[in-house]
C-alpha cells in the first residue's frame, strides 16, 4: 500500500517538473531575412502558456497541504489537484501534436515584440518552427500528477491527520494518567501549565479524598 509520504513526494516531484518545464524553451522560430533585427526567436513555456507557472506553484502548495489536511478537506484538494494536472496535460498535448500554424499562433505575443507585426502577419515571416521536447515533458508530468491525485482520492481516506499539534482538541492522557510530550506542548500553547496537573497524582487525590471522609 502506498504511504502518505510517498504519494505527497510524487505529487511534489510532478509539480516541480511542470514548474521547471515552464521556464525552458518550447519552440524556436527562424525568421525571414529582413523581417526583424534578429533571425531567430526562442520562446519559453511561460511565454506561450502564461498560466503554466502559477498552476505549477498551486500544485506544489496543494501537495504540501495534503500532507496535513483533514479527512474532509483531503479529497477536495486531491480532486482539485487532479483537475489542474489533467488541464495542464490537455493543453500541452495539443501543443505537442499541433501544426506549425498552431505553434506560431501560440507564440504570437513574443513574436510581435520582435517583429512588430500582428498575429495574422506572423505566419508569412516564419521560415521554420522547431518545437522542443519540453511540451511533451510537461504533458507527461501533468498526467502523472492527475493519476497520483486520483490515487490519493481513493486511499487518502485511511490516512491519519497531520498530527495533534494541528488540532484544537484537549490534551490526551497516556496510560498511568500521564500526558505525553505533544499534549504538554499543546497545553503550554493554550496557556495552561501541565506541571500543575502532574504535581498532584491520582494516589494523592484519593488519599486526600479519604481524609475528608474521615473528618467528623
From TrEMBL:
Entry superkingdom: Bacteria
Record's compositionally biased regions (Acidic residues): 187-196
Sequence segments annotated as region (Disordered): 163-216
UniProt keyword list: Membrane, Signal, Transmembrane, Transmembrane helix
Transmembrane feature ranges: 51-69, 76-97, 133-155
Pfam family, one: Trp_oprn_chp
Signal peptide boundaries: 1-27
Protein name per UniProt: Trp biosynthesis-associated membrane protein
Organism: Leucobacter tardus
High-level lineage: Bacteria, Bacillati, Actinomycetota, Actinomycetes, Micrococcales
